[in-house]
Specification:
mainly alpha; about 30% helix; elongated
């Protein structure tokens, strides 16, 4: 009798319905490890940084020029008048604004 090397018959390919599979989640890239550093040259000594100049206490307000003061009073008078619907005298608003600015500037 002759020996036969028989393999099992291949199964016929069956057409499967295509089913969309979700894409596999990507894994984050592996972090690269830094190569060991070569021996560095000795560092030069650096002088320590100078401390920032101490700020002066805010006891004294800074000097305000007459033009700055005029502009401050002008803006304050406008907002006072606006708050009062411009019902009173502009001179009254101006005087009230001058009082406010004087109090704020310490004069």
């Amino acid at each position: 009798m002759a020996e036969t090397n028989s393999k099992p018959a291949a199964k016929p390919a069956v057409a499967k319905a295509s089913v969309a599979k979700p894409a596999p989640a990507k894994k984050p890239a592996a972090k690269k490890v830094a190569a060991p550093k070569k021996a560095a040259a000795p560092k030069k000594e650096v002088a320590p940084k100078k401390a920032a100049a101490a700020k002066k206490p805010a006891d004294k307000p800074r000097k305000i020029s007459p033009q700055e003061r005029y502009r401050m009073v002008e803006v304050a008078a406008y907002f006072i008048a606006e708050r009062n619907s411009f019902a009173d005298s502009p001179v009254g608003y101006w005087i009230e604004a001058e009082v406010q600015i004087s109090k704020m500037s310490g004069k």
